[in-house]
């Protein structure tokens, strides 16, 4: 037996009475043959094909030669049953943190929200004091029902289509970069003791990314642009309650990230995309360092 052939027998197999037997299970009589190699296969081994049945080895060899379908950004195409996994996980994380806030109270908010530098109790806390994690955790933190309800509705409205168009990894990269771009912009421009929280920066980033992807795929973007404009108007009419800096920062980073993903040249797509993500991340880190030097 050739060790590379797995459990394939070295020669033709025969059943007890000399009739054809499955090449993988010599003791099983069968009258079914592989449509490609014509080896006999039993009902357990045969794989349905467009014409007749195939053996497992022919199916495996065929998959190696078939070019896998890719999204416009180079991601893997997923079946509907396996789509939107990242979106669902992100919504689940936001809901879990919201429930934690309801159970534990303001201690969680004080620990996780974005704040530049402020006195909380007897301690000075904030990103400028080394709490860089707040730039990420603030994007999963909500206190009010209406706030998380709107953000999760928007995430569910935009997320699945973008995740399908970009692929899971690239979609997650756009989401996290938008989130961090929003919190970094807020950290840079807001008063040092002004708190900020919510997934709105990431959501606005998805709005921007959806417009870039839709333009690339030649969709009618008028309804989406109108919805974005309405949300921007609401943002700037309520600056006392809404952190416009996070919204604008997330939107800008979302647009740039999506451009990197869908307009990278196909021949060097992955290299350009990884380089683009690293450049955007470096710009976010540089923004945080500049603001930290101002506050300390």
UniProtKB/TrEMBL annotation:
Residues 130-262 form the Peptidase S54 rhomboid domain. Residues 1-22 are annotated as: Disordered. Keywords: Hydrolase, Membrane, Protease, Transmembrane, Transmembrane helix. One of its GO terms (biological process) is proteolysis. It comes from the Bacteria. The chain crosses the membrane at residues 85-104, 171-190, 196-214, 221-238, 244-263, 270-290. Residues 9-21 have a biased composition (Low complexity). The keyword DNA-binding does not apply. SUPFAM superfamilies: B-box zinc-binding domain (SSF57845), Rhomboid-like (SSF144091). InterPro entries: Peptidase_S54_rhomboid_dom, Rhomboid-like_sf, Rhomboid_protease_S54. One of its GO terms (molecular function) is peptidase activity. It is a multi-pass membrane protein. Belongs to the peptidase S54 family. This is Rhomboid family intramembrane serine protease. It comes from Yinghuangia aomiensis.
